[in-house]
């Protein structure tokens, strides 16, 4: 098969898979609960009853919202499709597992970006930030890809019940939030927390947002972007390995 | 146009293991262009594993598969464009409408939207679901879902159609409609590869059948030829006005095996003529009335049972 023809098949497959995911999974209850309600309630529990300077914490909260939304679609798709019996049909189309993985990642990414843009616009209306739009948008794009890849990776264990995966994904996603410097600024962290914080990809987005909104960053920007890229590569590679390994399991 | 010598599916020494279990063991067969090939076997025989390898879902441990001359291991995407697949566990998206499901499938093959719309409408008409085209599939019956499943698999006009158990659990009308569609597609030149438990279905549709048991091919031939191989498996079906003890008939030494089917006895024999004469005399002696009596040739089911049973006994 000609390389051009193969590329056409690949990109068409990715786009059609993404569209299918958007059409079917955005309105599913787990996506609504884990992608929208969870970050909202986390924000409320963090904010209510405390005298917090939201101007200071908004970049972190925006990063948290992007993390939850972008990583909420991926864990659902494969287990849902295996449970519904549509996964084998999807695999019978002229697509590879990489096509499906990328289509799932793009679906999560688009969901994260749309919701995040709404939160961003509200934030910009309320607070009078002078933002660095280039870093902000580049950060959103790269981080949404990274977080969505994590979501797809979390879907790789071979279970047929989406609820099991959603529980498992919460087990991974919540600690990443707590060690990310959203609730405690990086400069105030001490001891183990100061080391752990670098193992969460959210840390680097929070830092990019801090620079974009307030002109202050704790980590060099090039490191922030590089680390998000490295995390993305790791998540996509692991997704590829585990999804291939568990391809027929749970069918 | 059927071309007997043009083998569109060639399978050679195909083997697949799952841990210590050999699911498919050195399977070799071929399917001619334009034929309906039935792939039969009991549960767990390796039918689904074989079809999953043929359709590029599973990678074989060893052996070769060629689809229209394309090696599926080396070029799975190109091979997949030549085929339509209706997997055994494959379902359609219940959150999409009937038409959306067909269009989604067509888009994976790169069909332009205008053409795709026309094809989707034509298929919905053909499958008797045009009026329901904008309804969500979740509101459909099992038979209607299977029709959309098939429509989605053939929207790109595949050269080869793989069907893995397409009719179990469907109502009679849906079964007949699906069989008619398979026949029509075959008449237009599509090669059909059909796995089924339903011997009658294979008998009605298939020009050749392959029988797989315990992961190994035990027979590949035309159903009629296979039946002739088992001429000895002739039987006499008889029912009397009263219940009888089967041992009394077996004592005749004319019967190889007896089977009770409701109020009937199926008596397998090498010599139906002698057995019929014996049964008439037996009825007179026992003061019985013969309600019905029929000499049956070996059916495809008998062939299937003999092939799979002998293997089971051998094991």
User: Mean pLDDT of chain A, nearest integer?
Assistant: 89
The most extensive interface between chains reads:
A-B, 24 and 31 residues
Residue share in helices of chain A?
A: over 70%
Major sheet summary line of chain A: none
Count up the helices of chain B.
Answer: 11
Distance between the termini of chain B: 42 Å
Q: Which word captures the global form of chain B?
A: globular
Kindly provide the radius of gyration of chain A, computed on alpha-carbon positions and rounded to a whole number of angstroms.
18 Å
3D architecture notes:
The complex is a heterodimer of chains A (251) and B (315). With 251 residues, chain A is mainly alpha-helical. Chain A is built from 10 helices and no strands. Chain A has one domain. Chain B is α/β, with parallel strands linked by helices and 315 residues long. Chain B is built from 11 helices and 14 strands. In chain B, the strands form 3 sheets. Chain B has a 6-stranded mixed β-sheet, with helices on both faces. A 4-stranded antiparallel β-sheet of chain B has the order 2-1-4-5. A 4-stranded antiparallel β-sheet of chain B has the order 12-13-11-14. In chain B, a hairpin with a 2-residue loop joins β9 and β10. In chain B, α3 packs parallel to α5. The radius of gyration of chain B is 23 Å and the shape is globular. Chains A and B meet through α1 and α4 of A and α2, α3 and α5 of B.
